[in-house]
Amino acid sequence: MLAKIFEALYLKVFVNIIVKRASTVVYIELYSKKGSADNIHAEFETTQLDEKLLEFIESYVRESPYYYIALLDYSSLQGALPTCSKNRLPYYYDLSNCEYKCYNGKWTYYTSKSELYEIEKTYKETGVDFIFSPFVVLANFFKDKISGNLALYALVQDSFISIAVFENSKLLYAEHMDMQTTSEVDDILLTNDIEDEEVLDLEMDSGIDLENIDVDDTGEALEDLSDIEDLDAIEEIEEFDESKDVEEEFLESDDVLQEADDGSFNEDYQRFSLIQTSVAHFYKDEKYESTFLENMYIADAVGVSSDLKKYLEEEMFLNVYIRHTEIDTEICELVKEELGL
User: Fold this and answer.
1) Helix, strand, coil content of the chain in percent (nearest 5)
2) From the CB of residue 155, how many other CB atoms can be counted at a distance below 10 Å?
3) Separation of CA 40 from chain center
4) Is a pLDDT exceeding 90 seen at residue 281?
5) Closest C-alpha to 304, from 253, 241, 228, 246
6) Mean pLDDT for the chain?
7) Global pTM?
8) pLDDT at 265 > cutoff 60
9) Residue 315 CB partners (closer than 8 Å, separation 6+)
């Protein structure tokens, strides 16, 4: 009883850390029983706990003996499986080198033991109270949706994409994908562009007159492309009433989609390719109960461009709905839930 009274005299300090590709975001919330007293956002140009970042965190945790450090798991080797049965888990994945936990008695999320150890080692000076899986963040963020009909879900970060298929709160499939693995593709494309420019320069130097090239065949080919106009008719197909309700709900969030510059165009195409590959795995892998996907919900933590939505709708024929999310504040809400606040 005295402990509860003593605790009530102090603010609770929630320190929520998101490690991005080249920086670290820290969201600090000062919380009292009357509600949040204050919150602070800061971003540091480091992915390690350097002196500046450590000093910033310690300046707030000194304010109260009741503080909690929470991180989003940034391990590259992690995922989720559609069962909590220890006998069934090996059927989907070898977890001998992983830490894993059952979520609400329905499905399991896991992460690499070695990478988890490295995270704890990095933050040994502050300590870590909670490490949350992106799949837990995704399920919590879309808890109003996953209890419904079959749909594809994605949490989009700058370095990772976490994919999950849910139906009636049951996880059917999940995959965690690293954006860094596609950087080699960019290098290949860049090399090809350079080679093409060199060939063009060589042709110009050789005196080749490009204007004399016969374009009749090219014109015929271009006429064939007129069939693409038929794709516009797809957008005019009337959707079911339920889909219209969902679209209206997400209409406001769709308005925040950014126009693409060259950098976001490349990254959104990478994201599209990874999502496309993951869906192919879901359809082809006999271990999973694959069903045709029509709807997709994206938790956007980076500000994707309209191109990603267009790729998914035109190439994969999905109905795509996008919600913006601040992962650090989502992590903070999960901490409060764990503490029963």
Assistant:
1) 45, 25, 30
2) 25
3) 23
4) yes
5) 253
6) 82
7) 0.78
8) yes
9) 272, 276
Q: Which of 41-55, 196-210, 262-276 has the least mean pLDDT? A: 196-210
Each residue's pLDDT tens digit, 288-321: 988 999 999 999 999 999 999 999 999 999 999 9
Rg (CA), the chain: 24
How large is the average pLDDT for residues 164-174? Answer: 97
**pLDDT-based confidence at residue 15 (cuts at 50, 70, 90):** very high
Q: What is the pLDDT of residues 35-48, one digit of tens each?
A: 667 899 999 999 99
For 71, 314, 318, the CA distances from 234, given in Å and listed in that order, are 43, 9, 11
Contact indicator for 302, 326 with CB cutoff of 8 Å: no
Residue 316 Cα distances to 167, 190, 293, 295, 308, angstroms: 19, 26, 9, 10, 11
Quote the longest CA-to-CA distance of the chain.
92
d(CA 100, CA 77): 12
First to last CA, the chain: 17
Side chain identity at residue 235, one-letter code: E
DSSP string, 36-48: EEEEEEEEES-SS
> CB atoms < 10 A from the CB of 324, how many?
16
Beta-bridged to residue 131, according to DSSP, are 71
Nearest to 281 by CA among 152, 148, 121: 152
Helix (H) or strand (E) holding 7: helix 2-8
Q: Residue 79: name the closest of 185, 181, 182, 171 by CA.
A: 171
Q: Which of 184, 185, 167, 165 is nearest to 175 (CA)?
A: 165
**Token couple for 181:** 């693995």
Burial category of 141 from C-beta neighbours within 10 Å (exposed 0-12, middle 13-18, buried 19 and up) = buried
* 70: three-class secondary structure by DSSP: strand
Match 């593709």 to its residue by tokens: 185
